[in-house]
Design a protein that fits this description.
This protein is an all-alpha fold. The chain has one domain (about 10-145): Orthogonal Bundle (Arc Repressor Mutant, subunit A), CATH 1.10.10.60. Helices cover about 70% and strands about 0% of the residues. The chain has 9 helices and no strands. It has helices at about 10-15, 20-30, 40-45, 50-60, 65-80, 85-95, 100-110, 115-135, 135-145. Helix 5 crosses helix 8. It comes from Pirellulimonas nuda.
Length: about 150
Amino acid sequence: MDRLPQFDSHSREEEQDEIVAKALEIIWNGLQHAPLNVNEVAQQLPVTRRTLDRRFAACLGRSVLEEINLCRISRAKQLLSETDMLVKTISFVAGFPSRERMRLLFLKEEGLSPSDYREQTRVATGAEHAAHALSGEDAQRFSLRRVS
């Protein structure tokens, strides 16, 4: 499995606001196996929660909580498509406060439940692998073996 998504510290946000850049780093690199909330992010920075939310809105056009949820969804999507972990386990590993919260956010953001997302990505990935595996000479060998 590839590494979980990480924050790139060389993004344009860092140039615009060091506090926002540090918050993004905390969210994307620090969200590990525990629900992270806006207050916990703000406590690690020299600003109040309200100031942090205002700076996020000014730089990114979204709230700190929305960024935390984007990170959680991103990690969950990767784990759903690349592992056989139970959805319950993925919700914990991705940092959701509960499996139900993950399901609701997934439905809102992706239009699918986590299980349906897994099934859809597995089918798409399986079809790509099958097409790649049966291309060119491999397909010819496969069809010759089946006829024999």
